[in-house]
Design goal:
Layout (H helix, E strand, L loop, with lengths): L8 H12 L3 H14 L4 E7 L5 E6 L9 H4 L11 H5 L10 H7 L2 E7 L8 E6 L6 E4 L5 E7 L6 H4 L5 H18 L4 E6 L2 E6 L5 H12 L1 H5 L1 E8 L2 E8 L11 E5 L2 E2 L3 H11 L11 E6 L5 E2 L10 E2 L2 H17 L14 E3 L4 E4 L5 E3 L27 H15 L15 E6 L3 E5 L3 E6 H20 L3 E11 L2 H9 L1 H6 L3 E6 L2 E8 L7 H15 L4 H17 L9 H13 L13 E5 H7 L5
Parallel strand pairs: 1-7, 11-13
Antiparallel strand pairs: 1-2, 2-6, 3-4, 3-6, 4-5, 7-8, 9-10, 10-13, 11-12, 14-15, 16-17, 17-18, 19-20, 20-21, 21-25, 22-24, 23-24
The chain binds adenosine-5'-diphosphate and magnesium ion (MG).
Length: about 600
């Protein structure tokens, strides 16, 4: 065995770099976090060749004093924490003091900074793959910092080989910028690749500007098809946007979750969100969301991962419950004409029948107010569900009067009562119901709508009457671990509530004596195992409910009006009224939309009217 010796600091840094600097995107993440920690309000990112050749990040933050420059590049040197107590309440993005040292050990790094107001007082430090040979010289720089990283991994060929194509590396890098831009609306970001501007995001202070940034980052279709979330249950607050169930994705690629401003990926949170969407999303589809959780920093440990992508909650179960209930509630409200599911993007209603355009500050009276519904988005003229633009009763009223006057139609007996989905006109091919409301035309998929209504009724009936259960003729033994026996005993109340009698049958054995009637044809043993796994991992499980719901959903599907059944006008109107009353009626049991709105101005456009 060779003798034990201390690693030289260059090698130690290169080893640390293995954890922190995986690819160009990691450099950008660390540098942007430093800029944000320094209080920058404008950050410019210039990248060449996907970041492998050059990354230059310029900020207008507090800068670094000349005498601190070489320390900034040293390992375990930070200005952000000084004690263990600081670590427990850390609010800066960085605190480990290793990023610059690590990056400097595997690249040609130049740090230029100025902590004064005068542009002449800056200084610059450079290092080429070794921290000990920092060269400091005066360099003019406006207040703030520029970090330049050239030839990443030039001295670690093994790592360099792991770099992918320019495009792939840039995609990763852009994703980092997007995440941080979603975490700080008050900071302006510019991203350029090979001289071309990719993102130019102005600082956003009002809601409309924030929405514009989200649209720039997540796509305009996302922001038009979201529910705004703002829920609070001290010590937690959840805000942001979640996609309507009908705006689902084939991958979980549009999911951003921030905890106290830090973007994280967390299984617990992913599970809570997924569970909230359980009843409204098509199998295998993923919800889209941008969500912000705020809580006391002492309630969350951010020091569990070198790049801090993961966190640990003091009370994970409470966080899970809070997120689940906030989203579950919001999604239940997705039904025609229901106010909390709708958000008028461009206008804020005042109490006096006027509306303020939050983008322009312009005040308009309601009678001339456009229908909140933005022009057809890029995904197609009629793809936008009604949910985002439903008017208030007063708006409906005003519009109906205006519209009727214009077209010489009689005003309905009592305009106040025009329901959100309007009144049925006809049925098309035995499949679609056509109705007229204040906006124009409503198209309803009769079967999909009826299926959701029946399903919600079956669930309500079950919840009201309680779950009927039956004893098993032959009790079923299930071999499990000791831990699982413990968990099952701890949660016996949960099982009882769901109509399941599960008892300890030995150190490593559970016995099922009674099951819910609806589950008589299900694989109850598998279900029990999955539930126990959930309980161990997340502290809660909705699997049994989910399974029962699935069975009810199938029953609802068979019991619902099939296509090709003729409905009378009163029957159609009854269906529309039921939809307005039913939770989650915006989409069928499989997550498809149940109805769409075709606005009058969209129809006018089709006929080139008013041009
Ligand atoms: P950490 O961020 O964990 O403190 P870093 O290695 O990333 O460690 O940075 C070391 C120190 O350099 C920081 O604590 C900070 O004082 C200073 N620093 C780095 N980048 C900037 C910047 N853009 N503006 C001002 N100070 C900076
Ligand atoms: Mg840092």
């Amino acid at each position: 065995m060779p003798k034990i010796h201390l690693l030289n600091s260059r090698l130690a840094n290169q080893i640390a770099a293995g954890e922190v600097v995986e690819r160009p995107a990691s450099v950008v993440k660390e540098a942007l976090e430093n800029s944000l920690d320094a209080g920058a309000t404008r950050i410019e990112i210039d990248v060449e060749a996907g970041g492998a050749k050059l990354i230059r990040i310029r900020d207008n933050g507090s800068g670094i004093a000349a005498e601190d420059m070489s320390l900034a590049l040293a390992r375990h040197a930070t200005s952000k924490i000084a004690s263990l107590e600081d670590l427990e309440r850390v609010s800066s993005l960085g605190f480990r003091g290793e990023a610059l040292a690590s990056i400097g050990s595997v690249s040609r790094l130049t740090l230029t900074s100025n902590a004064h107001e005068q542009g002449s007082e800056g200084s610059s430090a450079a290092c080429e793959g070794r921290e000990m040979e920092v060269q400091l010289r005066p360099a003019p720089h406006p207040r703030g910092t520029t970090l330049e990283v050239r030839d990443l991994f030039f001295n670690t060929p093994a790592r360099r080989k792991f770099l992918r194509t320019e495009k792939t590396e840039f995609d990763h890098l852009e994703e980092v910028v997007k995440r941080l831009a979603l975490s700080r609306f008050d900071v302006a970001f510019t991203l350029r690749h090979n001289g071309k501007v990719i993102h130019n995001l102005n600082a956003a202070s009002v809601q409309a500007e924030s929405r514009r940034r989200v649209a720039a980052i997540c796509g305009p279709a996302f922001i038009e098809q979201t529910i705004a979330i703002d829920a609070e249950a001290p010590p937690y607050r959840l805000s942001g946007w979640v996609g309507l169930p009908t705006f689902s994705r084939s991958q979980g690629d549009l999911q951003y979750f921030f905890v106290n401003g830090r973007v994280i990926r967390d299984r617990l949170i992913a599970h809570a969100v997924k569970q909230a969407y359980r009843d409204v999303l098509y199998h295998g589809r993923h919800p889209a969301f941008v969500l912000y959780l705020e809580l006391d920093p002492a309630q969350v440990d951010v020091n569990v991962h070198p790049t801090k992508h993961e966190v640990r909650f003091r009370d994970g179960r409470a966080v899970h419950n809070f997120i689940f209930s906030a989203l579950h509630r919001a999604l239940a409200e997705v039904r025609p004409g229901h106010a909390s599911a709708q958000q008028d993007a461009a206008t804020t209603q005042t109490g006096d029948g006027m509306a303020i355009d939050t983008a322009t500050g312009e005040i308009r009276s309601q009678s001339t107010l456009a229908w909140g519904a933005p022009a057809a988005d890029r995904t197609g003229a009629f793809s936008r569900p009604y949910a985002q633009s439903a008017p208030s009763a007063a708006q409906v009223n005003a519009q109906l009067h205006g519209y009727s006057r214009l077209h010489g139609l009689p005003v309905a007996e009592s305009a106040e009562e025009v329901p959100p989905l309007g009144y049925a006109l006809a049925q098309l091919k035995g499949i679609y119901v056509l109705a007229e409301n204040a906006h124009g035309l409503v198209l309803v998929d009769m079967h999909a709508a009826h299926e959701r209504i029946t399903y919600e009724r079956l669930k309500a009936a079950r919840n009201q009457a309680g779950i009927r259960s039956q004893p098993l003729l032959v009790p079923q033994s299930v071999a499990v671990s000791q831990r699982e026996v413990q968990v099952a005993t701890q949660h016996s109340a949960l099982f009882q509530r769901l109509g399941l009698a599960v008892e300890e049958g030995g150190e490593e054995c559970l016995v099922i004596r009674q099951i819910p009637v609806v589950l008589r044809d299900s694989n109850i043993e598998q279900l029990l195992r999955d539930v126990l796994a959930d309980l161990i991992e997340y502290g809660s499980s909705e699997r049994i409910e989910a399974h029962m719901d699935e069975i009810l959903s199938t029953m609802a599907c068979h019991g619902s009006v099939r296509a090709n059944r003729r409905l009378t006008i009163p029957e159609m109107n009854a269906l529309l009224r039921d939809m307005e009353e039913t939770e989650r009626a915006g989409q069928c049991n499989h997550g498809r939309p149940t109805w769409i709105q075709v606005n009058l101005d969209e129809l006018d456009k089709l006929f080139l009217r008013g041009r």
